[in-house]
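G., the chain you wanted modeled:
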Amino acid sequence: MPLTPGSFTFTPARPSLERCITDPVPSSIVMGLLMAGLNVGSGAPLNGATFGGAIGGIYAYHVLQCPMEQVHGRRSSLHNAVSGGTLGGLAVARGMAGVPFVPPNVVYGGRLAPV
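Predicted structure as tokens:
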């Protein structure tokens, strides 16, 4: 049966909550190991917290995005910004992460001297 114009409609698949919890596990492990390896190469200690934090952070990012995709029925860059911003804000507020390219004294309440 040949496809005619208008005979095919695109309906995005909505992941189930079970898939939201299980699907990100393999990619979180792979990317978490990669990120932890980069952190260790940059001077972070080689321990379970370094690896667990990286893997857990990436997993949490994926798990936060999934319900938003279910509600809207599609992927969106807004979901990316909200998930990443929420986790990043919490990590910086708790002193677990820094802001790239910004000195720590600026982030944690120090004042910049006028030039």
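Helices lie at 17-22, 24-41, 48-72, 77-93, 104-107.

Shout if anything looks off.
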